[in-house]
Structure formats: structure tokens, C-alpha cells
Amino acid sequence: MEASARNGRELLAAAGVLFPDEHGRVLVVRLPYDRKHPVAIPGGGWEPADLSPRETALREIAEELGFTPRLGPLACIDWTLDDFRPPIAAHLYWAEPIGAEQAAAIRADAAEVGGWAWLTPEETGHALPPRLSRRVTACLRAPRTAGPLELEDSWPAGHTLDHLAVTPPPEYTGLAGVAALGSAPSVPPEPPLDRATFIATRPRIRAKARTVFTDAAGRVLLVRLRPWDGPRGLVPYWTLPGGGIEADRELPRAAARREVREELGWEVEPGRLLALDWLPSAEAHPAGGRDTAVLVYVFDGGTVPDGMLAEIALAEDELVDWRLCEPAEARALLSAPSWARTASALAARERTGGPLELVDGRPVGV
């Protein structure tokens, strides 16, 4: 579905960093202004000038801790839900281990970080609030080769279920027993904005869920959209099946399932998450012309038998055609970023582990 209405589709984006040390401990910070959940992982919210969540992570660490880390691969993508705010697409990155000399050079911004400490994985699981604890604990428990992990509301999803069982999070203790972080001030400083105002003023992104289907010959299934009154809608164009995620009411896998049902008339379960493609906003990448960033989830639909292709029932209010395309034809029909994304997703079918991290269709962090 490519309708221009955006109500309910916007979400927040954030990026954090897992810093290990040579002893296998993890760096956590104390938030001086957070009375309820004072222990966190370094990181913060996306800004429109950030080219990608990876840049968000680098900027946030420079602002909070006073140095620029060397980031490794994406550890996980986590679509988190809450009754009191929009969903958040949370990206968590691995950083290269920090040695004693680098740790000594940390210069924390006192307004953002009230203290920092190295905790064992077990201590980290207890100190972090439950949702963040589930996310971080999953990354610490799973083999690195399984990453990036796919999480939904911080629970394992997709291929992550092959590596992690769904288990209750550790008991939440917060600051209790973490003396290295110091105690919370008796009168914590007031945050610059109250929670509701802060959330209302944060920039939003949008997200899409698309699915790659091929036939026995390896041709990829594309659909052609009906023209509509929108930035690209005056001329119908080709794309992978899928569309916007209704961020306020569904998770990415549910969105992929719904879009395939609505557009093709198929009831299929999304396969492995092949790619995460970040399309920057115009503020970060003027040539793209997007009013905000878009995060595209690309799932594997597998090989479709001829009988199933014969049963395609196009959503006539949205689509005008479908076609099975050899790679050269798909490249000619798709926009450059869409073809790069599709080619990356097809290549990801041949590898193990989690989704490729892409920016405008091109792999990053590899």
C-alpha cells in the first residue's frame, strides 16, 4: 500500500552502542535526569541531519562521552512498542573493545551522563530496564555470527529464534548493587522537557515492509503501482510487493504479511529478514528529496511455484500489473536505490546470519 496518508505510520528511531572491554564486560551509563530508569546503554535519538543510524550512534557517543568510537557490525534491530509513545526502531551496534587507555580518555557530558561503569553481562541484565535488558541480553547471548538479530518488542523474531530461546528477562534491580555508577542524586535535575513534550518534539521516520519472491528460474516478482497524487505517483512505477507499516498498530512481519495478502491475494508467512535499508532524509541527503528518513524491511518470500503465481489477485485500487523479471530487466525497471536494495536482498539469500545493513541500497558496516 502506497497511499500518501501518514497518520499512524510515523515512528521514532534511535541508536545505541555496545562497548565491550577486554574482560567481556559492557559499558553502561547513569542518566542523571531519569528517575525511573537511570541505567542505560550509551546512545540516543536519530536527527534528520544524520545520514544513517550508524551516524546517529557516532554523533551520540561523541556528544555523551567525548570520543568517536570505531563501530563494528549492527548487533540488532528492535521495533519496540509502548502505549505512551510512537514505536521506536532501535539500532544497537557493536564497538571495538575499549582498552584501559581509551577508557581513561572518556570525558562524559555531565548533563547527559551522571556516571559510567563496566558491568558483567549478568550485572548488565539486572541493571537495565526490562525492555532494554531483553535487547542487550539477546545481543550478548547470541553468537556474533547470528547478527544482526531481528527483535520485535525486544523479543527474538525470525532467524533469531534459531539461536535464542524466548526466556523471561533478569530481575530488574536498576542502580541497586551497581556501586560503580554512584547513587542517584536525592533531588535529580529536571530534564529539559517533560516526557510528553519531549516525545512530541522528536523527529519521526516512516517504515516499509517488502518481500522478495522468485520463481524456479530465479526471476524476481515485481508489481507496478497505479498512479496517485504523490511525489512519485504521477507515473506508475515498479517495485517489490509491500508498502507502509502501520506503525501504531502492527509489527514489521505482520505488515509484510498484510501487504502481500492485500496486493497479491496470498496468505504467506514472511521468511528471513534479508535486509534493512535506510533511506536518508533530504536534510542529510538532498538529492533523495525525502521529507523524512524511511526504513525498509526486506523479507524473503522464497521460491513461488507456478500454481501460486496463477492465483495472483492484484489489488486493483493499488496495482496495475505484475511481472517476473530477470536481473537485467529488474535493474532497468526499478529506480537505482530500489534495484540496489533488491540485488542486496537476493545476495543475502546466499549467506547466513541476520539482515544486511544498507543505506540507499548499498551495504555499510561490512
UniProtKB/TrEMBL annotation:
Residues 8-142, 203-347 form the Nudix hydrolase domain. The keyword Magnesium applies. This is NUDIX domain-containing protein. It comes from Streptomyces kaniharaensis. One of its GO terms (molecular function) is hydrolase activity. SUPFAM superfamilies: Nudix. It comes from the Bacteria. Keywords: Hydrolase, Magnesium. Its cofactor is Mg(2+). Transmembrane segments: none annotated.
